[in-house]
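Recall that a protein's primary structure is simply its ordered list of amino acids. Everything else, from secondary elements to tertiary packing, is in principle encoded there. The following example makes that idea concrete.
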Amino acid sequence: MDYKKLLIDTMMSSKYKGKTLDELKEMFDLSNAQEFTAFMKDYNEGIEDLTFIEIKDKIYLAEKVGYFKGILKVHPKGFGFVENDEIHCYVADVGKLMNGDEVLAQFIHKENEQPECKIVKVLQHSLKHLVGTIKKAENRSPKFLPDSPLVSQRIHILNFHDFKLVNDTKVLVKITKYEPLEAEIEKIIGYKYDPGVDITSLLLEHDVDIEFSDEVMKEVDKIADHITEKDKKGREDLTDQLIITIDGDDSRDFDDAISIDKLENGYRLGVHIADVSHYVQEKSALDKAAYERGTSIYVCDRVVPMLPQFLSNGICSLNPDVERCTISCVMDIDLKGEVMNYRIFPSFIRSKERMTYTNVNKIIHRDEKMCHKYAHLLEMVDDMMKLSQIIRKRRESLGCIDFDTKEGKILLDKKGRAVDVLLRERGESERIIEDFMIQANEVVATHMKWLEIPAMYRIHEQPDPKKMKEFVHIAQLAHLKFKGNILNVKPMQCQKLLKEAKQKEEYSIISTSLLRCMAKAKYDAKCLGHFGLALKEYTHFTSPIRRYPDLVVHRMLRKYCFGKMPTEKVMKKDEQWVEKAALQSSIQERKAIECERDVDDMKKAEYMENHIGDKYEGMISGVTKFGFFVELENTVEGLVHISVLNDDHYIYDDASRSLLGMRTKKRYAMGQKVKVKCTAASRFKKQVDFELIRG
């Protein structure tokens, strides 16, 4: 019997007012030792994972009495937020807690105010390393100033004497004790103001492994730099076909290539993906390193690759005019966007052109010089455009949501300093490749699902009703009506609301708000569908150079579709391993996103350091009880703290999600346009401060 579920159901009842453990035992009428043991096992598991909580000898469902687990994000000003997949809650005072701590928090409800919480206890310190700067005055002991905010804590460094340190040296320290906080210097990173040291420091603080082990590199040394006759065995030769890659101007790893042919009633689309699984063998040192990393990390001017450069930029990259091993997904698609037939098979190709999004966009817009240079690709580009529109139209009819959020592009000078922040433009060629990759991912997912072989799927579940309720309120404040049941939201309903919102100035805020209330996409061994894409089957197949899940999908295709079917015992083992790998990949993906976001925030703040005093027009992107955030057109975001709103006393009004002046009744709400002046910026704190310009 599942006593944990029975306990949860019991405690969810409105009649339940808390019972002691003995009362619960009595309530369940445990008649023998076996039942008692099973009950205590499930009860203890619930106490351990904080499903249940004990308050004054009585047991409650933790969430029912306002307790929840989350990760603490600390702001240098001393406040923070506790976050999990469903909750993002303000903490007024973080005390001695550290950024990244896993904590148990409890909601504090105050009338007409933004929800707040307090930290009950630290469950786990996730921060194992800190990066900081050595400050050393003459004839004085050195001091360590951490980059991460340690609001009310001092850190004691145990081994200063082991290193020759000068003022403004950047170091990596390993935490050896948390209470009181002690650490040892592990590595000197470089001089604080040297080019690239800031990004390297952030990567190390996020525990990103920026180098590969000797064991991994020894395996790499054994791999040939060209494909051999042995490599070609069992593969279809596609080298005579017109196959091209299309990537960003500064891309170095090309893991997808395309081909297209007209059919009588549609098109034949070929998506040819680098066969990384041919080189990265199961349980090898290479495979273990890729598993641990989970994904490549892209930060401004550099990439921390999932695989060593010899593979990612060399033998696995579909470079032009060289033969490469691939796995091909060739689909016959009719004029309604439906797949009539498909084949997935091992192949080898020779890419005819290394095309860029910029050049393909120029061809689409009939740039004379580019059309002349690539005259042999004009018909292909036209066919790509037509098929892409067909595929997109079919997805839109299913309810696919296009959030179309703004993304900033940070430009660095030769010394690695941020000199500009621009809006990243997304042209038609980017959309074409996205459409083709999504189509291939869907077909491969469907293929693996119906064959019932071990696979890793990309899943995106329905949004949480509580978050949808919050979004619906925000939409109503923008005079938009959500038509549907928030308990069972359909993608089409979200799509329709966003289309309506496109006419409004605050579209980007509404789109971002809807995106925030969505569940986080993740990896799973079960095929649970993709809400955002409105697809029942979806996986990641098209980027095995930079994502471990794609490599897993390739490996399972190779194992169960291209060769002799393994035994049931092997299949069971693979299913269990894929489940574990899916969890690891999801965790690493989130870490990578957080790291990339931190680098972006740092570089945007660095850019604004040179624009203190400059005036801008922006839009309020978030309102809290301590002020509001303003986003500029180029995606730079800064805080207008409530302390600088000195024309009135402002309070947070929960009903309108705004700050309201008690005397003037002036209101500041999301989506509102305001003029601001940059008053402070710090790349080290990763923060920008604005002041309101009145009038």
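The first strand starts at residue 52 and ends at 55. The two ends are 68 Å apart (CA to CA).
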